[in-house]
Amino acid sequence: MATGPVNGNTDSMKQTLVSLMHGAGAFAPFRRLNRNKALILMYHRFHETADGVSTSARCFAEQLDYLAEHYRIVTLSELAGYLTSGRPVPPGLAVITIDDGYRDCYDIAFPILRERKIPATTFVVTDFVDQATWLWTDKVRYLTASAAGSLLEATIEDHSLRIALDGRYSRLKGAERVNTELKLISDEAKDDAICEIAESLGVTIPNVPPAEFLPLTWEQIREMDSSGIEVGSHTVTHPILTRISTGRLRNELRESRARLEGVLDHKVELLGYPNGDHNQSVQQEAARAGYTCAVTADYGLNNGRSNLLALKRIHTEHDIAHFVKSTSGFEQFKNTLIHFGGEAAPLSLDQSANS
Fold it and tell me: Cα–chain-centroid distance for residue 199?
């Protein structure tokens, strides 16, 4: 049964419906209803033009203009101060966060933020910036993009994968599937699996990231830090913190903070959990390591009762209509209705492969 065209038509109809609702102002009441809850947005990659994966410069500028019109944009540390003050959170607060520390944060996002005098918070992986490693999720993307063959076959923890690599889109989706599986296994097994996939595809992984995956430099980080962009930790190597030993967890949290403080010459107390994964033990270790505020990839808004070491964020969209919908709180309202209707409510929007 051919489902591709049907699914394509359904997606097109949904897109049209969201655009019509946005044009009619249907999401504005939900935004006003949630004005006493703080919005934290999560970005990752940026590109000059729309590439279907990153946030384009035009899209980012449009989203910032929308936020500036309807919210007061503050840094994450400023929001944390409100949340710990014991007083009601001021209405209409929004925070922009950018994960990982890619070069495009400086090249594309930073000039747009600076032009509008809008603050943001970026979380960087310190070994990535030092070019001692590059993000393992990107290694998989590199492998699927560079493979000469049109088929990837791999076994990850007894789970067999057979993925067609017959075009840019299928190679991106293939990397996504592999990364999803790798996030479920131990860090050591993950590294072994990536090496095995590289060998099976006949691709050598470079020691330093190729141009597409370059990190920020420390000079760029210092410049942003002195120009209204807060810098927080995203650990040393970007592991899934719930799947590593306590000893390594402590090292990832403490060494990344120490490296940042040594470069920036001031305290760093903000943390972004890699992939958003956290639990009570990770939160406790984060507090012991000196972090006072941490963000997850859990979908939602925040108020005075929110756990400061487990703040929720909203995943950003690539078009303004869906962006307005997701930031308004409409999804939470819809999910609540579904929940009380007896169906399982989705806990989050689709997440980016990195966090």
Answer: 29
What is the overall mean pLDDT for the chain?
90
Q: 333 lies in a domain?
A: yes
Residues paired with residue 151 on neighbouring β-strands, in sequence order: 164
Residue 350 has pLDDT above 50, yes or no: no
Q: CA 147, CA 150: separation in Å to the nearest integer?
A: 7
User: Count of domains in the chain?
Assistant: 2
* 211 touches 177 (CB < 8 A): no
Q: How far is the CA of 249 from the CAs of 126, 205, 256, in angstroms?
A: 15, 26, 11
Domain-embedded: residue 354: no
125 and 141 together in one domain: no
| 229 within a domain of the structure (yes/no) | yes
**Region 54-60 average pLDDT:** 96
List phi, psi (to 5°) of 217: -100, 160
Q: Quote the strand ranges of the chain, DSSP E.
A: 39-43, 46-47, 55-56, 72-73, 93-100, 120-124, 151-156, 159-164, 229-233, 270-272, 293-299, 311-315
Please give the DSSP secondary-structure letter assigned to residue 329.
T
Its pTM stands at 0.90
156 within a domain of the structure (yes/no): yes
Distance CA 110, CA 23 (A): 29
State the pLDDT at residue 20: 86
Q: What is the distance between the alpha carbons of residues 62 and 282, in angstroms, rounded to a whole number?
A: 36
Residue 142 vs residues 60, 65, 168, 211, 264: alpha-carbon distances, Å:
25, 34, 12, 11, 32
How far apart CA 316 and CA 352 sit, in angstroms, is 9
State whether 251 and 127 are in the same domain: yes
For 24, the 3-state DSSP assignment is: coil
Rounded to whole angstroms, the maximal C-alpha distance in the chain is: 62
